[in-house]
Design brief:
The protein is α/β, with parallel strands linked by helices. The protein has 16 helices and 7 strands. Strands 2-1-3-4-5-6-7 form a 7-stranded mixed β-sheet, with helices on both faces. α6 links the parallel β3 and β4. α3 packs across α8, α14 runs antiparallel to α15 and α15 runs antiparallel to α16. The chain starts with 6 loop residues before the first helix and ends with a helix.
Length: 319
């Protein structure tokens, strides 16, 4: 069944832009038919940027693009092209392909003589620097990386969540300046990085996003294992208001004030009972609980309200 994207989702980019803003520099093109490329193309087009062409990362993708139905609310399907056509028509080309495919694709286009002087070439990897686009730079192109600090579980989620996101950018200053305008158009925040900072930046993103999912899964499985709820979906249903409340607290109160729970209260007895129960049914989770508690205790101290005796007793319990 074809996916549809609601007009309000596409129009978030338009509402994020200043009313008097004119169409930005273009035309731009995308090679890569995934969620990020399709969402960026749709939202930037909705905000006034000319999208010249979109191609799959293989010729087969270019002939029968699986993303074409997703463009119905914004982009004309005539923008679908092949790789060579997309490069030729675009002043800035986004390589929105998996990380391992970026450098080989860039070299493939360079070998065929596709890149030209003054053209912008951008990849959207969070972990890799713009230097992997050296083959384009050797041809006279400007290069940069442009990573949305956001989670995209589906194309609809990408369309909904991209506006207002943080975008990590590094690369040639002239191109970075243009990408800053795209971030402004999307109502986002530009985070300028040095190339050597990309890996740790991306590790921080993985900890904040990916491992939140892991912790939710572990908590859900514990509830199922002990027969408290019938299945993982039911467990997650009960946990979601708590997770949303935690994120809201982080957003409105910040760190360390958002921290709640037994460590923040100095409740040694509750921590002790947690560990005893976990050691009886899930020893590996008891080990994880102790480790997370050791990392959390400094936050609890920073928040205030714990005296030296509370801290000493908690530390003894979680060691």
């Amino acid at each position: 069944m074809a996916m549809t994207i609601n007009k309000p989702q596409i129009q978030q980019a338009q509402s994020a832009a200043q009313p008097e803003q004119k169409a930005l520099t273009g035309p731009i093109g995308f090679i890569g038919a995934g969620k990020v490329g399709t969402a960026l193309a749709s939202l930037l087009h909705a905000g006034g940027v000319q999208v010249a062409a979109i191609a799959g990362r293989t010729q087969a993708d270019g002939r029968r693009p699986r993303f074409a139905h997703a463009l119905a609310e914004g982009l004309d399907k005539k923008v679908v092209s092949d790789i060579a056509g997309t490069v030729a028509k675009s002043s800035i080309v986004f390589l929105t392909v998996p990380d391992d495919a970026i450098e080989p694709l860039c070299k493939q286009i360079a070998t065929s003589g596709g890149w030209r002087a003054g053209q912008g070439v951008v990849h959207c990897s969070g972990a890799l620097p713009s230097s992997i686009l050296q083959s384009a730079k050797d041809a006279g192109a400007l290069v940069a990386s442009f990573h949305p600090l956001q989670t995209f579980a589906s194309l609809e989620a990408a369309i909904a969540h991209l506006p207002g996101s943080t975008f990590a950018i590094e690369g040639d200053p002239e191109l970075v300046s243009q990408l800053d305008k795209f971030v402004e158009l999307l109502g986002g925040n530009a985070l300028h990085l040095h190339p050597g900072e990309k890996t740790l930046y991306h590790a921080a993103a993985a900890i904040a996003s990916n491992y939140t999912v892991t912790l939710a899964a572990l908590a859900s499985e514990l509830l199922v294992q002990e027969g408290i709820v019938p299945d993982r979906d039911a467990a997650l249903h009960y946990l979601m208001p708590l997770l949303r409340g935690t994120v809201d607290n982080l957003d409105t109160l910040g760190l360390p004030t958002a921290l709640t729970g037994p460590l923040a209260r100095g409740d040694v007895g509750t921590v002790s009972r947690h560990l005893k129960a976990l050691e009886g049914c899930a020893p590996e989770l008891a080990h994880l609980y102790r480790h997370l508690a050791r990392l959390t205790l400094p936050l609890a101290q920073e928040k205030g309200g714990l005296d030296n005796l509370d801290v000493a007793r908690l530390r003894e319990e979680i060691e």
